[in-house]
Amino acid sequence: MKQLHDQLNKIVATQGVLFTKLHQHHWYVKGPNFFTLHEKFEELYDEVNAQFDEFAERLLTIGGHPYSTLAEFIEHSSIKEAPYTDKVPAEEMVKTVLADFELAVKDLEKGIELAGEAGDDDTEDLCIGYKTSLEKHMWMLQYYLD
Ligand SMILES: [Fe+2]
Q: What is the DSSP letter of 59?
């Protein structure tokens, strides 16, 4: 159970950083696709925010203690952030989101495995649902790039 708690907490931390990072893209994206991507990044951080809360509350429900500080999120997140200094092409931002979603999916796959081992169907279901949604976004982002 400890392993499952730790993994859910890692998912919480990753979403915490992802939420901020998507705001960075939302604020700084430039170029002819500004309106499309500005809006898409907002849609994505809204979903990430909802899942961030969902996973933290699931962890509480099963007796765990979600991280609740920015320092903890940064320390335990699977994805890394960086300050926006030089102009980043819009396409690079989309590629970054794709790479970050891939890491978030890996977190969720581990969560599915551990929840399965613990016989926790609800947590497993939560992980599967979010993974399915992220993978759909990844397909769309990849088609955007193609
Ligand atoms: Fe905004």
A: H
Tell me the pLDDT tens digit for each residue of 60-74. 999 999 999 999 999
Tell me how far the alpha carbon of residue 43 lies from the centroid of ligand 1, in angstroms. Answer: 10
What residue type is 21 in one-letter code? K
Low-confidence ranges of the chain (pLDDT < 70): none
Domain edges within the chain:
2-145
Give the fold, CATH level 3, of 2-145.
Ferritin (1.20.1260)
CA of 27 to the centre of ligand 1 (A): 7
Cα of 46 from ligand 1 centre, angstroms: 11
pLDDT at 27 (0 to 100): 98
CA of 26 to the centre of ligand 1 (A): 7
